[in-house]
Amino acid sequence: GQWGGNSSTAGVYAACMKLREAIARKAGLMAGDARFDEGQIISGSRSFTLAELAGRQGITVEDGIEFGDLTKTYAQATFGAHFAEVGVDAATGEVRVRRMSGAFAAGRILNPKTARSQVIGAMTMGLGAALMEELVVDTRYGYFVNHDLAEYHVPVHADVPKQDVFFLDEVDDKSSPMKAKGVGELGLCGSAAAIANAVYNACGVRVRDYPLTLDKIIRSLA
Questions:
Q1: What pLDDT does 81 receive?
Q2: Which of 33, 39, 86, 143 is most buried (CB neighbours < 10 A)?
């Protein structure tokens, strides 16, 4: 995921920087003044191939990054906004989500395709939480009444509308050398609330506990 990639690559970045220094040192150059380009290290009129510097034994380095008190010094939050359009049947109270959209700022997006997939999956989870997912427990015996997918309802293709995801151009220069942050929770946090607010906007019924099943809506319909 985006956050795992952001964290793990910090160590890779540190090792790569140390490797640059080791190569430059072996060439008798200053890493800060040298340029790495097309398999060479170049500084002024001097140049060496990385292959000749590495030799048959190669060059191996190890390094890492500790984030320390980063979370105490800077806010590490990501930001986003969810939008939903729903229709509520005036007779039955049945809800259909017609469109969902979200705009998010999560630092550098490392892979736009997989990040978008992660967010639309989370938005679908939010839709399920808002409208259908409910675990019923028999408190007398501690029994899960709807313990299978026949009775514990989750969204299927027909329930999921068109979903638009927009990532704002942003880099977070404090989070890590990759300047990225996580996106997973962004798609989930807020999506169910947006649907609940849209239901209220559509029919005037405010339901404050999930899921927004039709029995909770129809009893308050005018």
A1: 96
A2: 86
